From TrEMBL:
The keyword Metal-binding does not apply. The keyword Cell inner membrane does not apply. It comes from the Bacteria. Its main location: membrane. Keywords: Cell outer membrane, Membrane, Transmembrane, Transmembrane beta strand, Transport. Belongs to the outer membrane factor (OMF) (TC 1.B.17) family. This is TolC family protein. It is found in: Cell outer membrane. InterPro entries: OMP_efflux, TolC-like.
Amino acid sequence: MNKIIVLILLFVTFPASSQEILTLGECYDLAEENYPLASQISLLEDKTARELEVIQKDYLPKIDLNAKASYQSDVTEIPLDFGEQSLETVDKDQYRATLDVEQLIFNGGKINTRSKLKELEYRSQAQEVRISLYQIKKRINRYYFGILQLREQMALLDSKQEVLAERVDELQSQVKYGTALPASEDVLKAEILKVKQQQDEVESQLHTALKSLSAYIARPVDTTTVLELPDQGMYIQGEGSRPENEFFDLKEKELDENKNLLSKNLYPNIYGFAQGGYGKPGYNFLDNSFQDFYMVGIKLNWNVFDWGKVKEQKRSLDISKELIDAERESFNFNNNIELEEADRNIIKIQNMLVKDREIIELREGIVETANSQLNNGVITPSEYLTEFNNLYEAKINQQLHEIDLEMAKADYKVIKGNTEN
């Protein structure tokens, strides 16, 4: 007997334990991971890694293989007479093959600066993608809390249908004993059919919302999935950090690194070089035979005077930085206004909920009286339905406002940038 009880308990509790539970934070994370735009970050990372590798190769020696064969119309002759001896004239056909090697010795740290600049460019571009992904959170709020509202509506409609069915049973008994007219029962049955229509409409909206949320988070979400209502009691106190502010910081760092690179462009470049080759003639133009030759040395390249070009370029970068500061100020200004509007919306909904509770309390008393009057034949079923529908309309409004309040708080946190709390 005990084994049977255990098996029954396991059977009953298994479906509940197999239900998937989703939180709002998990939906945020899944949406950001699976939204098509998210793949751009990894692509940008791969692209930057290859560009950095190319920049670092500037440290490696430059090796050139050159070959040349030529024939010229005239050559240099030295008109000197040494009697029986004479200087050999260089042939008009000449051949040369060389291997040239050039190694950077010093360039003022330009390569490292270019690498840092490339990394900052990647971080700025990746942050720009994150800003676009961040905007998805508001859409997730609409679907997530919309599903919760539709489920509450469905639950209240089910409750409404059950109460109406009970009233129908009571009226059937009254009709049977002649204390009520048959038409009274039909009025309530028609209302039950109307409730079923509303249930069908809400169910259709619910399936649409579930599919939309499922598409955004790339995970199946159905009627069995449990969506937890987040606890956001301290929504205002949380510290915020919008991704836009980090983007502005990165763009300013990028401009500073550009200025640093411009300064380093004023430094000299020092190279070591070597050349080895084989040809006719070699370095000795008086020797008209094929010969080996080589040369090693060091060279300097320095643009001593740039006519103030770097100075003007730096000034241009300073102006760009001022533009970023203006853009940051504009963003924060608009964001603060949006926060104030969101806060006022929260206060408005809180006040509505206070009135909702008062309305429901009054409506419940009215319906209780109407129910007694209906049973005693004082009022008609239509008059009873009017008060009954008013009560359930008030209950639905309260449930919608309660979830509206949590959605408004979630929107406030998204606007402020403290969705991690």
